[in-house]
Amino acid sequence: MEEPHKKNKTIFTGKALAALVIPLVLEQMLGITVGMADSIMVSSAGEAAVSGVSLVDSIAILLINAFASLSTGGAVVAAHRLGGKKRSNAPTSYCFLLRELPLSSWPLPFCPTGGC
User: Integer distance in angstroms from the first to the last C-alpha of the chain?
Assistant: First the structure.
């Protein structure tokens, strides 16, 4: 016998998931398009220039994904604290994100390739 409180309840609807996934897919498509456009613009300069642009694009994608994962992890920690009824600790994790992510990324504009 199935108990009423153990019914399979979905947390998110398909429409809500699509609203979350579509911007992520568009962001990835935009990043790929920019990388392709960079390679096309430099293709007349020679093979070494295309290799250099591809390498820098790979490093840029790595850095973007690293910082996106840091911010996503911080959001998960804040959501976990909110869900665990520890509302007094949630602003602490939010403030940590606002303070530490900019501090960890400030040297990047001063490096010759955009990353150290």
Answer: 61
Give tens-digit pLDDT for 52-73.
888 888 888 888 888 888 878 8
Alpha helices (H) in the chain, listed in sequence order: 14-42, 47-83, 90-105
Question: Tell me, what's the pLDDT at 116?
Answer: 46
Query: 28: buried, middle or exposed (CB in 10 Å: 19+, 13-18, 0-12)?
Result: exposed
How many other CB atoms sit within 10 Å of the CB of residue 31?
A: 15
**Do residues 55 and 48 make contact, with C-beta atoms less than 8 angstroms apart?**
no
pLDDT at residue 43 is higher than 50:
yes
In angstroms, rounded to a whole number, what is the distance separating the alpha carbons of residues 79 and 16? 18
| Secondary structure of residue 88 in the 3-state scheme | coil
Q: Quick one: how far is CA 81 from the chain centroid?
A: 21
| Window from 38-42, 49-53, 64-68, 94-98 with minimum mean pLDDT | 94-98
